[in-house]
Each structure stands twice: as C-alpha cells, then as structure tokens.
Design a protein that fits this description.
With 289 residues, the protein is α/β, with parallel strands linked by helices. It has nine helices and twelve strands. Bound molecules: NADP nicotinamide-adenine-dinucleotide phosphate (NAP).
C-alpha cells in the first residue's frame, strides 16, 4: 500500500481526492485539514511526520482567497510559501514525495497561446506571488516532487464560480459577468483522478517535475456562465462586462490557459472537455441543493 497524506482535505481538491479514494485501493489515504493539521504550525507538522509514515503528501492546503490575499499578505505567504518550504524540509528528512498544486496565476496573462511549464513566472497579485514562491521553494529544495499547475477549479464542493453562478441564476433576473478574461475551467474531480492515474502508472523521477493539468477547451467567465445558464435552463440575463467595469482588489491575468500537452503525452491520459464535465458537476450540485 502507498500511504498518502492529503492536506487541506476539506477544500475542493481535497474532497475530490476523497471522492476517488475507495476506487484506488493501491493508495491508503489519510485526510487532514484545520485544525488537526495546520500547515502553518511547524511543531504540529514536525510532530505529524515523526509519528506517521508517509509515502506521498498531496498538498491541497492553500490560501486561495485571491482578493482577500491583497490585504492578508502575511497569511497568504505563511501558507502558500513558508508552509511549502517546511514541507520540503520534512520531505527530505522523512523521504516522502510531494505532489503540490499551483496555479495559472503565477503568469502575467499577456500570452496569446497556452503557457508551457517552463514559461517564466510574472504573477500580478499577492496570491500569485505567494504561489510562485511556494513553487520556487520546491525547486530550490531539489526533492522528489510534482508541481501540478491547474486553473479555474470548479466542483460540487466548497466555494467556486459554478456554485456561485448556479445560485445567482436562481435568485436574480440579471447578472454581470466578466467577458475579457480567458482560461481553462478544470473539474477538481477530473484533476484528482488524473493525478491518481498518473501516479498509479509510475512513480517520480529523482527531481521535481512541473505539469499542467486542466480540462480540455478554453472560455471566458461570461461564456462559462452562459453554459451554466443553458444547462440549468435559467431565464436570468447574463450581461458581458469588461474587467475594468468590475473592479477587484487583485489583478487577474487576461489570458491564463495552460498547455496540457506534456502531461497528456507522458501519461497518455485524456482530458474531457469542460462543457461535458460541467453537466456532471451541476447534476451533483442540484442533488445536494
Ligand atoms: N480554486 C481555484 O480556482 C484554483 C485555481 C488554480 C489553482 N488552484 C490551486 O489548487 C489547490 C487546491 O485549491 P482548492 O480550490 O481546492 O482550495 P480550497 O477549496 O480553498 O481548499 C484549501 C483547503 O486548505 C485549508 N487550509 C487553510 N489554511 C490551512 C492551514 N493553515 N493548514 C491546513 N489546511 C488549511 C482550507 O481550510 P478553510 O476552508 O477552513 O480555510 C481548505 O480546506 C490550491 O493549491 C490552489 O492554489 C486553485
């Protein structure tokens, strides 16, 4: 059995690993989150790895409130950078492998083609900077790790765009959605499955690898919302607005599509289209509402 510790296990991605756990019997999962395993608490972390044997850590814990991070800079860095540094130290000492999740927001969004894994970082927000520094900590530590970048996560769990729009469409007659930011929506349930399938195929190399995993296809937030509207048959009007007409604390990339060719080629794992998996997600959200 391969022992896996999932941190931040109550978040979107953490719950998506829970969803698959029983279907991957090769892995023995331990799911942890606040308060029992606080990644910003060095003593708690150190103690955990002294008491427990772990082969892999899937680090799903993160400070993900992109706008709030502009005001909670210290907190964002504590979790997205310093805790990752500590995990690297512990990975070296206790010889576990790290699967760490990161974001399209490490890029500046000026590209016109999908970002490759090697593209230089140029984050535009506190969240992006903190995630970029977390990645850098792993690369500097020179450990067996995967950095898995993803984008525009949605799922039946936690807080995300699909759940927000689903609820607004039922309670409003008109909403505004930004139409000039382009990205690749990613179903957290598919992302978790892809990672498990890839790890089941083969283990790590001797150094850190960076992969991009998203669903297939690109869109804007506005088109994404229109698709949700179509699938739930709503009458609410969805008006396209420009980023400058919808001011937010954090700057977001205009274009943050990640190239997923490397992952697809190395593991021969197909990615489903975001429209296809959106229907599945909405079915799950409806059954819970
Ligand atoms: N969400 C997106 O659109 C998106 C896009 C690209 C990349 N990503 C990356 O994908 C990964 C997973 O994102 P997600 O959407 O699943 O995040 P999420 O839903 O916000 O989950 C993060 C989890 O970490 C927990 N957590 C917070 N502080 C912690 C601490 N000190 N110690 C341990 N756990 C702590 C959170 O608990 P509380 O809820 O109680 O704070 C939550 O359960 C992250 O690395 C994120 O940066 C996300």
């Amino acid at each position: 059995m391969i022992k896996v510790l999932v941190t931040g296990a109550n978040g979107q991605l953490g719950q998506s690993f829970r969803y698959w756990a029983s279907r991957f019997p090769k892995f023995e999962f331990t799911f942890s989150d606040l308060p029992e395993l606080d990644l910003t608490n060095d003593l708690q972390l150190t103690h955990y790895f002294e008491k427990n044997t772990t082969d892999y850590v899937f680090n799903c814990a993160a400070y993900t409130e992109v706008d709030k991070a502009e005001e909670e800079i210290v907190l964002a860095h504590k979790l997205n950078e310093l805790a990752v540094k500590k995990l690297c130290e512990l990975a070296k000492k206790h010889r576990f492998r790290l699967v760490h999740f990161s974001t399209d927001y490490v890029f500046d969004g000026t590209n016109e083609n999908p970002y490759k894994e090697t593209h230089p970082h140029a984050p535009q927000s506190v969240y992006g900077v903190s995630k970029s520094k977390g990645e850098q900590a792993i690369l500097n530590a020179d450990i067996d790790a995967w950095i898995v970048r993803t984008s525009w996560l949605f799922s039946p769990y936690g807080k995300n765009f699909v759940k927000t729009i689903f609820s607004l469409l039922q309670n409003k007659t008109e909403i505004n959605v930004v139409a000039d930011q382009t990205g690749a929506p990613t179903y957290a349930i598919d992302l978790a499955k892809s990672v498990l399938e890839a790890l089941a195929q083969r283990s790590f190399g001797k150094k850190t690898s960076v992969y991009h995993i998203t669903n297939e296809g690109i869109t804007t937030w506005h088109e994404f919302a229109l698709k949700i509207k179509e699938l739930i048959n709503s009458d609410c009007e969805i008006k396209p607005v420009a980023t400058e007409d919808y001011p937010t604390l954090a700057k977001r990339p205009k274009y943050s599509v990640l190239s997923i060719e490397k992952f697809k080629k190395e593991f021969k794992i197909k990615s489903r289209s975001w429209e296809w998996v959106l229907a599945d997600c909405l079915k799950k959200i409806k059954s819970e509402s």
